[in-house]
Structures
1.
Amino acid sequence: MLSEAERLACLRLIRSEYVGPVTYRHLLGRFGTAEAALAGLPALARKGGRRRPIRICPQPEAERELESLSVVGGRMVMLGEMAYPAALEALEDAPPVLSLLGRDEALSSPAVAIVGARNASANACRFAETLARGLGEAEHLVVSGLARGIDAAAHRGALATGTLAVLAGGVDVVYPPQNRGLYEDMREQGLLLSEVPFGTQPQARHFPRRNRLISGLSKGVVVVEAALRSGSLITARFAADQGREVMAVPGSPLDPRAKGCNSLIKQGATLIDSLEDVLQAITPEARLGTRPLPPQAPPVLADAAAEEEAESGKARLLELLGPSPVAVDELVRRCHLSAAAVSVALLELELAGRLERHPGARVSLVLDAKADAGL
């Protein structure tokens, strides 16, 4: 169990400059605690080449966020606490902190995500609502993103039995505004969840990160209606990468809103046209062919040898990096450094603002890193 001081340090760490979920894990691996990691951030950023001081979240700022969340009736859960959703713990980029608003006992139920088009057809919305109601009656938590169209229909269908909305903005921010009534209903009867700071307005870059949580929380993802280039297909891709079941509802080849689902089915997604299809697809017996992510290993403290090796090999590593993302495993193979040393060097470069992490354990060099690092 985390002490109150360590919980506050966890929040300050993830809200500090250049610290994302993967970096957070590496920092805990290097220092053991969030409090120690906060103290070590400035030195790591300097070793990575940064001259300007890195911004560390001030303690009063973190305390205000916790207080603001408490005032509206919410609470915060940290990675590693008993209340943290078990389904998310295995993700490489599991959020270090989650803000919850509503009935968080819903997290104890097995979850299925339902996603789809914002400009969905009436028939698709009716199907999503009926499917969600049936899943709820079968004691499953329905997860979606509170968007217009299919998301909203799924939440309404499962409102009486249990539904969770993963938000791209702060847990207190209603988006889109048209769904304010549904948002208020979710506060009373469902659950709202977010990893971004309280009061944050959603931005385009937040939505893919939200989508990985929708799939990560769930045993499977049902795509009801989606165009070929849509956020729903991003959610489906995350689900496949995370070892979750991908399901899709077929549609007319003449309707652009069905092309994404039809494409998923061609690629191997399970065809869904009833509640029974979904329940069958997510049974353990049916999911023998899927490979859920193994649990994340606890952080391992970096040793002095790895730090020395990282320092001597950093120039070699920088030569291999560029603006195009490359797998960390590939860097280890090509730079002839140990995996521990590469991890240390990448961490220092990231905290200097010179490195960006991407899904799938890939990294790239930031093009304007020289300006960001104050070089």
Note: The chain is about 45% helix and 15% strand.
2.
Amino acid sequence: MSRPDQRTDDQLRPISFLPGIAPHAQGSVLVSFGNTRVICAAMIEEAVPRWMQRQNVKGGWLTAEYSMLPYSTLDRKQRDISRGKADGRSIEIQRLIGRALRAAVDLDALGPRTLWVDCDVLQADGGTRTASITGACLAAALAFQNLIENKVLNASPLRQWVAAVSTGVVDGRPMLDLAYTEDRDASVDFNLVMTDDLQFIELQGSGEEATFSPDEMNAMLELGRKGITELTALQKQALAEATPPPPAADLDSLASHFNRS
């Protein structure tokens, strides 16, 4: 049985990056994993959190925020400000994004600054957290390149590339990069966050009213490694093509980007 979009079990969805989507951010990108689309923007604040000042912690800090826009899903998603409290899932994902990027960035080299990364989901079709992490790393790299161009930094604090991808078991078959309908029907769901040299940062995996065997886990890990290798290569290509920093994306660029996806 083929997948709904005719991919092979070890194939990523079409991946694309459109830099310069948020002109006021030092680095930004619209990342697409198939029909999942996320705006990731990185901004530099010339200060560190108060707790770092009080504890005399040297270097900089990095933090992330994640949200799903009300129109990102078929049914309107209520904004957190309307609900009066933050969504637990959003808090979990933004902490994951922050942990992933802090493993990739040399905070001492960043200096006494805070890198804010905002990930806003425009359209959700499975894998919003993995698309957010992958796009956030590229947005950070673009922000660092901007600081180098403006002679604020001599070198990029990005020590290594970080990407994330989902795997799972659907109808007894291990698969890479699950779209929503596959994720919904999966008996096992895994998310992998890894560096470009295939070191693990975080693994999130569980059976959905099911168990999974060591062989299935190994198969998912192997699929994940393949996906991470491809994603980090695409990140590096996108940064190379966006240097010097790109102009703000115009409507024609957006239309072309969505048509390609």
Note: The longest helix spans residues 214-241.
3.
Amino acid sequence: MANPPKLFTPISLGPITLPNRIMVSPMCQYSACEGNASQWHLVHLGSLAISGAGLLCLEATGVEPEGRITPGCLGLYSDANEAALDTVLKTLRATCSIPLAIQLSHAGRKGSSSAPWEGGGLIGESRGGWLPLAPSPMPQKPGEAAPREMTIADIERVVSAFAAAARRAQRLGFDVIELHMAHGYLMHQFLSPLANRRSDAYGGSLENRMRFPLEVFERVFAAAGSSMAVGVRISATDWVEGGWDVAQSITLCQKLESMGCAFLDVSTAGVSDLQKIPVGPGYQVPFAEEIKREVSIPVISVGLITQPRQAEEIVSTGKADMVALARAMLNNPRWPWTAAAELGGTVIAPKQYWRCLPAGPGTIFGEIIYGQR
């Protein structure tokens, strides 16, 4: 029997073993109420949970109310938030076996925004928004009000909020926590010299700019316990001269690895509207490849990975250990089935759907013989 495609071989993230190397990326839905998951989340996540992917990651989830990107973003800072997510997870667990991750985040100066379909701009306090926090009082976009510079007490509170959310995630039974240090949100703001102009122990040198994100990781790793994998999503570059770059990212990733980080999810950009991004298929893969050469933990690549053979080439040639798909999964929630049929791989599919699985060069779920009265 021929060897299976690399994309459909198992991989371990710390204590968790995934059945294949396809991750459903966290994708904001802006459909929560006071941070509570809604019926939309049941439908959205239920569809993706039976995709055959190796890991499903929930959207960016705020660790305090002001940590949400929009008023419609998920939160995990209250008992009500936890209860609402418990309902979602119990439904998913009752119907499928896909490993589940949650992305814990704080939006920082990108908080109090309207949903993308409402323009995505800053919502002022007079219109029901809140005053965002940031490492420095620098607005995200020209013309917007400046955020409030975080005090040491604010920093300590937010670190504790991340740890508390991790304990809630552990109680809920998530397999994986991904800490969001990318896309211009709070931890990325501390890392990037474009957003961090502090002169205290949390600003200036690379060591100082990494201090807050590393404190968050340390507390979350301790709170999660030995049964959960804790990984990190980073932006490998700001795509702006003088900003955060891949060399600094490598230093951060090596430090995270030494602290017990289970995986690195490598994206880019998000901290500055001056970014110049050469968008194209797989445009972020080279950053994952460069970081992978410098660490020994699994590295995940993202960014316009849409075709099965493209994904297989990335993992089979060692550019990354996994791929994470977002828009491609929304367009085709059964993308892993299609990929397995095309490449000759095997996925887990619900028996209720066996009769609709696509044909291909290999069996994608094992040999099934259908009977019909």
Note: The chain has one domain: 6-356.
4.
Amino acid sequence: MRILLVGAGGVGGAFARIAVRRTFFELLVVADYDLDRAERAVAAVRERHPSDGRFVAAQVDASSAEAVAALARTHGATHVMNAVDPRFVMPIFDGAFAAGADYLDMAMSLSKPHPDRPYEETGVKLGDEQMAKAEEWTGSGRLALVGIGVEPGLSDVFARYAADHLFSAIDELGTRDGSNLTVDGYDFAPSFSIWTTIEECLNPPVVWEVDRGWFTTEPFSEPEVFDFPGGIGPVECVNVEHEEVLLMPRWVKARRVTFKYGLGEEFVDVLKTLHKLRLDRTEPVTVRSGGQAVQVSPRDVVAASLPDPAQLGDRMHGSTCAGLWVTGTGTDGNPREVYLHHVVDNDWSMREYGSQCVVWQTAVNPVVALELLAARTWSGTGVLGPEAFDAVPFLELLGADAPAGYGSPWGLDERTPEPV
């Protein structure tokens, strides 16, 4: 397996630091628009593994399918791994196809709200542009494995596991994400890409119900307090647009599918203020600087004004939890409620890998998936989500002790169903 990794930011850098410990690939090209950043990511790997010669740095324009395809061909890439903002999904997706490589990503093609009823009906949904090309990928005998980060990704693997092994009928698949992370020296410092966070939090959230299909609500709707494991405790969660709701119903039977994010009151207030000031826009505006007119995107300005999440690890404290809350009827015919979860402590991920916990938790899952594909334990053609594959090999490999596995166990909490 020869991998082209597009994106050398926080998640891309963590991907490389995790992958270097595995033997399933022969080459990993770390590519970024900023060649210096790609070279720094490779240097960070070589600092801990100086004898490993499988890593190469390269420059690429992720907005150009032609540039992605050319770089993939140059290095004979069998797989293209997308680790950049979702605005670049389609050129990387198309570039991989043009180069004859398989494709993986951790976020899907962007949505567009319904022009007239944005908080009631879906417009262009997350992933619609990719799903529209599924027949082309199937016809070519090639695989695009979409949404294989942590959320989406591990949460979707949990959905497949719950359907196959824990439940005879599922009422709700509810992804719930929360943390107790703090960052020294900053009143406000997101632990993940603010560009992506704005996109998913301010767009109309999508919910799926068996009798209605996909529909939308107001941002931050249906607040609930969810009790997270790993010492995190109760966190208020709200509806957010996310790929799980668009993926899970395609392969897993359930009456309802939701995604709620534990943002906290301050974070929600900041996002609402950005929206009110129209600083969440991606369309360029004209700014006069030094007597010259410059075109800039307000959202890019916000992102540039905040600290790089990849550089915050040594100031972060606490843990992050990703998981799936599932309700329904157990295999014994009785009501059942479980929370399948994966907790990562920041001190551990920094000590072991030099990556902060949020980006590490996102990056580990596509590495696991690629290892399963390399071993042909997972295989398929077309545009597929993680739910389309057997969950057991993935969860076993993720949780098994190193060096056989990745040494990052997942958990299952039994919770008492509410009386009907």
Note: The two ends are 51 Å apart (CA to CA).
